[in-house]
Design brief:
Elements: H1 6-19, E1 34-39, H2 52-69, E2 73-75, E3 79-80, H3 85-94, H4 98-114, E4 126-127, H5 131-146, E5 150-160, E6 165-167, E7 172-173, E8 176-177, E9 185-194, H6 200-205, H7 214-224, E10 226-236, E11 242-247, E12 258-261, H8 267-271, H9 277-288, H10 292-296, E13 305-312, E14 319-324, E15 336-339, H11 345-354, H12 390-404, E16 407-413, E17 418-419, E18 432-435, E19 439-442, H13 472-475, E20 476-478, E21 485-488, H14 502-505, H15 518-524, E22 529-533, H16 539-553, E23 566-569, E24 572-578, E25 584-585, E26 590-591, E27 599-600, E28 608-613, H17 624-631, H18 633-642, E29 650-652, H19 654-673, E30 675-676, H20 684-702, H21 706-720, E31 725-726, H22 728-738, H23 743-752, H24 769-773, E32 776-783, E33 786-794, H25 799-808, H26 810-815, E34 819-827, E35 831-838
Parallel strand pairs: 1-2, 1-22, 3-4, 12-14, 22-23, 24-29, 30-31, 32-35
Antiparallel strand pairs: 5-6, 5-9, 7-8, 9-17, 10-11, 10-13, 10-16, 12-15, 13-14, 18-19, 18-21, 20-21, 24-25, 24-28, 26-27, 32-33, 34-35
The structure holds ligand ANZ and zinc ion.
């Protein structure tokens, strides 16, 4: 009996595949039979591949191989999202140019990914830091600029003092930098902004047709944050000024008892009374020191200051005081609100604290003595709105305001324009020149790519200028428009730019004249299946949809959306082991001879295990290279798919990979000793199981239930391997089904069986529906809660057939003599439960 040498097999088969260019996609696919299967491309970090990377890549590889075997022309590419801060920070620390580090990391990533036998078309590899690639990133920027979608603005932006760069709103979580968790500050800087807000409605609407995880759709909807309501104008008493507010509850206008301006609101200076000036100034300073996250915290004690001014309610002429308070944010709506304490929680807390009026305008049982009532109800204290309910009165008041000219319906979005410039070196230069005479001048397309110049020092200045600002010979240039002296833009693009459109470049990565040939884009677009981590639910996936829509409007792409179907992989966690003193230990230091009670090798001390995120400090990081060396690529792949539901987080467990590895070894030895012949006929049940397995594995791959597909294959193999002589079809069907999960050993077995062809070029097995109908299942029959008999029936039986089979049993008929059947409950596939009473 031969024992498989997995490492040798991996290497041998990978070389055969590469030589045959087995995975290359044609320039143009067959019409109607294309499948574009895409992974989120990695940032090639210095740490190398994490075990989470091959989780997604294995899934996409299984889908790709499955689709190929189903006759599709599959486009399955890989590349590198290689601009970014780690390489730059490494350069600052060591002086090694980010280009060199990045190249080294890419080579390592490529080597590692190839060792898994993924079916990528490596001729299509891309690298976002390659000038041939970023030429087109810059080209898209120029189109955005020409369409008025890229503009400059000096606004207070999120500034990370540690990364020394501005950040987009999407990069700030809970007031902290997405990358380094440092609390962000506000800084006034000239910025390049992208007008993503112009696409807010389309970005929202087009989510409709996407086959994406519900949670990701919801996060995008919330981020775009559409609010329908009204804008209402309030005159400032005794001044020629108007305060415009945005409200989602114009129906509560009669209940407005005060107004609040954001501390930064431009009217504050104009309306503040001399007596209140000092207090207002002090409060504004205080508010400026807080970040938006702190300010928006609903739980926080309310603060604010009266401005001394009054506004006039346009409905009834009532004067209400105008305050400033930091719970009203500058960036949202108009930065001013009408406060309705009776029906808004924050206004209620504020009014209680400062002794402001509370007027109830929606009738409720609870009243507003203790808290705001935010539900629906009948309007009261509201003149002509009295008696209506909320929805009706909203419409009525909006109509009235529009007629009288002090308000109108208004839709607002939470989405802000995208702060697109970064004050760092390792990014795409922005192809813009600033001319003393002509102002902002875009570079002509013929001058692209605008290459990153060499620098000596990579440190960001920290003053808000990128290291590029120090390279005078690069910065000083001539104006493409007038030929006069001009300076280059020294900001670079954010890390997200290159990934906004990379899926298009794979289709046609060597094209020198266009981003993608329209004929090819029409044939391969959109991405049919996109796989990657859920952490991009808003950032990359929103930015990329935005650029895609711009490209759609430019006629570069023919679909409204880039990614038709999206799936996220779950996080791979790990067991970490600690001794009594709380110190972590590596697997090498542990004696696992009793898996339930691992001990320290050194002194036999007992360890406690915990499932945690992999991290160096917990000494529980699994290095894919080590696993491959020990078990080979197929065991790694199959184990990662077998661990649990694809999108769930789950711990890596060495015992688990042992089990999968044993299964694959058994497959290899069985096949090695097997006699395949035409004459042998396997029993009917095994024939049925084969068809059942074909159905199960096919459906499971389609629905990303890879774990149950692997277990179905194990179940089938357990039965099949009882035979040392099988028919050709049974042997081949099993190999083909297992192939996407364990491509190397299946290919080896296939080759050993005398085939010169590749399994990938074989046709995926189909199953016989009629045969599955003949399959019998056994169900229990209960009388009054106790199992009395078991009956057999065909697997596809409906409820009526279950009943019939149960009542057909002789044993049951005897037991039911002299009884009345009160009720029959059918649990299809499991049991029939009969409730009976003596008659
Ligand atoms: C009056 C009112 C009465 C409100 C009521 C609510 C309830 P969403 O749904 O998130 O869009 N608002 C408006 N601009 C604001 C800002 N810049 N900072 C803080 N709050 C602001 O929320 C819209 C509601 O949030 C608006 O409707 C406004 O309060 C407040 F019974 O106006 B409302
Ligand atoms: Zn000029």
């Amino acid at each position: 009996m031969a024992i498989a040498n997995f490492q040798e097999i991996d290497k041998k088969q990978q070389e055969r595949w590469e030589k045959a260019k087995l995975f290359s996609a044609p320039r143009l696919p067959k019409t109607g039979k294309k499948f574009y299967c895409l992974d989120m491309f990695p940032y090639p970090s210095g740490q190398g591949l994490h075990v989470g990377h091959p989780e997604g890549y294995t899934a996409s590889d299984i889908v790709s191989r499955y689709k190929r075997m189903n006759g599709y022309d599959v486009l399955h590419p890989m590349g590198w999202d290689a601009f970014g801060l780690p390489a730059e920070n490494y350069a600052i620390a060591t002086g090694v140019h980010p280009r060199i580090t990045t190249q080294k990391n890419i080579d390592n990533f490529r080597r590692q990914i190839k060792s898994f036998g993924m079916s990528y078309d490596w001729d299509r590899e891309i690298d976002t830091t390659d000038p041939d690639y970023y030429k087109w990133t810059q080209w898209i920027f120029l189109q955005l600029y020409k369409k008025g979608l890229a503009y400059q603005s000096t606004v207070p932006i999120n500034w990370c003092p540690s990364c020394k760069t501005g950040l987009a709103n999407e990069e700030v979580f809970n007031g902290r930098c997405e990358r380094c968790q440092t609390p962000i500050e506000k800084k006034n800087l000239r910025q390049w902004m992208l007008k993503i807000t112009a696409y807010a409605e389309r970005l929202l609407e087009d989510l409709e047709g996407l086959d994406w995880p519900a949670s990701t759709l919801m996060m995008q909807r919330n981020w775009i944050g559409k609010s329908e309501g009204a804008e209402v104008d309030f005159k400032v008493d005794g001044k020629d000024e108007t305060i415009r507010v945005f409200t989602t509850r114009p129906d509560t206008l009669f209940g407005a008892t005060y107004m609040v301006l954001a501390p930064e609101h431009e009217l504050v200076e104009k309306i503040t009374s001399p007596e209140q000036k000092a207090a207002v100034e002090a409060y504004r300073k205080e508010a400026a020191a807080k970040n938006e996250f702190e300010r928006a915290d609903a739980e926080k004690e309310k603060t604010g200051v009266f401005t001394g001014a009054y506004a006039v309610n346009p409905l009834n002429g009532k004067k209400i005081p105008v305050w400033i308070a930091d719970y009203v944010l500058t960036g949202y709506g108009t930065g001013a609100i009408m406060a309705v304490p009776a029906h808004d929680d924050r206004d209620y807390a504020f009014a209680k604290k400062f002794g402001l009026d509370i007027i109830e305008v929606i009738k409720s049982e609870q009243g507003v003595a203790e808290k705001a009532f935010t539900g629906d109800g009948e309007l009261i204290n509201s003149d002509f709105l009295n008696g209506m309910r909320v929805a009706q009165s909203k419409a009525a008041i909006i109509k009235y305001m529009q007629e009288k000219g002090f308000g109108k319906a208004k839709t607002t979005y939470r989405l802000r324009d995208w702060v697109f410039s970064r004050q760092r070196y390792w990014g795409e230069p922005i192809p813009i020149v600033h001319c003393e005479k002509c102002g902002v001048v875009p570079l002509p397309e013929s001058e692209l790519p605008l290459r990153l110049p060499e620098v000596e020092k990579f440190e960001p200045s920290g003053t808000g200028e990128s290291p590029l600002a120090n390279i005078t010979e690069w910065v000083n240039t001539t104006c493409p428009h007038c030929g006069g002296p001009a300076k280059r833009e020294t900001n670079t693009m954010p890390q997200w730019a290159g990934s906004c459109w990379y899926y298009l470049r794979y289709m046609d990565n060597k094209n020198q004249n266009a981003l993608v040939d329209p004929e090819i884009e029409k044939a391969y677009g959109p991405v049919d299946c996109y796989i990657g981590g859920a952490e991009h639910a808003v950032l990359h996936l929103l930015y990329s949809r935005f650029w895609h829509k711009v490209l759609y409007d430019l006629g570069v792409v023919h679909t409204k959306e880039p990614y038709a179907k999206l799936r996220h992989q779950g996080m791979i966690l790990a067991f970490s082991y600690r001794d009594e003193a709380g110190n972590y230990h590596t697997y090498e230091e542990i004696d696992f001879s009793d898996p339930a009670n691992p001990k320290l090798k050194a002194n036999g001390a007992k360890l406690t295990s915990m499932i945690e995120k992999m991290s160096k400090s917990k000494k529980n990081v699994i290095n894919p290279d080590d696993i491959l060396k020990e078990y080979g690529a197929d065991a790694f792949r199959a184990y990662e798919m077998f661990m649990g539901p694809f999108d769930a987080s789950k711990p890596w467990d060495m015992r688990g990979i042992e089990g999968v590895s044993r299964f694959l070894k058994r497959v290899y030895s069985w096949a090695d000793d097997l006699k395949v012949s035409k004459d042998v006929k396997l029993p009917k049940e095994l024939e049925i199981l084969k068809h059942k397995t074909v159905k199960k594995v096919s459906e499971d791959i389609e629905s990303f239930s890879f774990n149950t597909a692997v277990s179905a294959l194990m179940i089938y193999f357990n039965e099949l391997s009882k035979y040392k002589e099988v028919d050709e079809n049974s042997f081949e069907v099993f190999l083909k089904l297992l192939h996407p999960f364990a491509p190397h050993i299946t290919e080896e077995i296939w080759q050993n069986a005398g085939h010169e062809t590749f399994l990938l070029n074989e046709i995926w097995p189909s199953y016989n529906k009629d045969l599955l109908l003949e399959e019998q299942i056994e169900i229990g029959v209960q009388i009054n809660g106790k199992i009395k008999d078991r009956v057999k029936l065909s697997a596809d039986s409906d409820k009526a057939a279950h009943e019939k089979a149960a009542l057909g049993s002789e044993k049951i008929q005897n037991l039911l003599k002299g009884q009345n059947i009160v009720k029959i409950i059918v649990v299809p596939g499991k049991m029939v439960s009969i409730v009976a009473r003596p008659s």
